[in-house]
Amino acid sequence: MPHIIVKLYSGRNKELKTELSDNIAKAVSETLNLDIGTVSVSIEEVQKEDWEKTVYNTDILDNKDKLYKKPNYKF
């Protein structure tokens, strides 16, 4: 606990995804005062043409009450 899921466009290399995961885990552990070993991060790649349907509509629009950082774009 906690587990963070990052969804992003496909195409980034493994090293960049590892760096992102490490930075997120560090920020979460420091902010919540947790051992970094308790934090897990997964990355789900989404094709650009599928973003609106599989992420924006379901994870963003349908979850406004749970969304703490809102994007500045709309479809």
Which strands sit side by side, in order, in the main sheet? 1-2
Mean pLDDT figure: 97
Let me know the CATH homologous superfamily of the domain at 3-48: Macrophage Migration Inhibitory Factor
Q: Which structural class fits the helix and strand makeup? A: alpha+beta
Low-confidence stretches: none
Q: DSSP helix count? A: 2
Tell me the strand percentage band. 15-25%
Helix content: 25-40%
What does this structure look like?
With 75 residues, the chain is an alpha+beta fold. It has a domain at 3-48: Macrophage Migration Inhibitory Factor, CATH 3.30.429.10. 37% of the residues lie in helices and 19% in strands. The protein has two helices and two strands, in the order βαβα. It has helices at 14-31, 51-60, and strands spanning 3-9, 40-46. Strands 1-2 form a two-stranded parallel sheet. The protein starts with a strand and ends in a 15-residue tail after the last helix. The mean pLDDT is 97.
Topology:
Layout: E1 3-9, H1 14-31, E2 40-46, H2 51-60
Parallel strand pairs: 1-2
Summarize this, please?
With 75 residues, this protein is of the alpha+beta class.
Keywords for this entry:
alpha+beta; two-stranded parallel sheet; globular; 75 residues; 37% helix; 2 helices
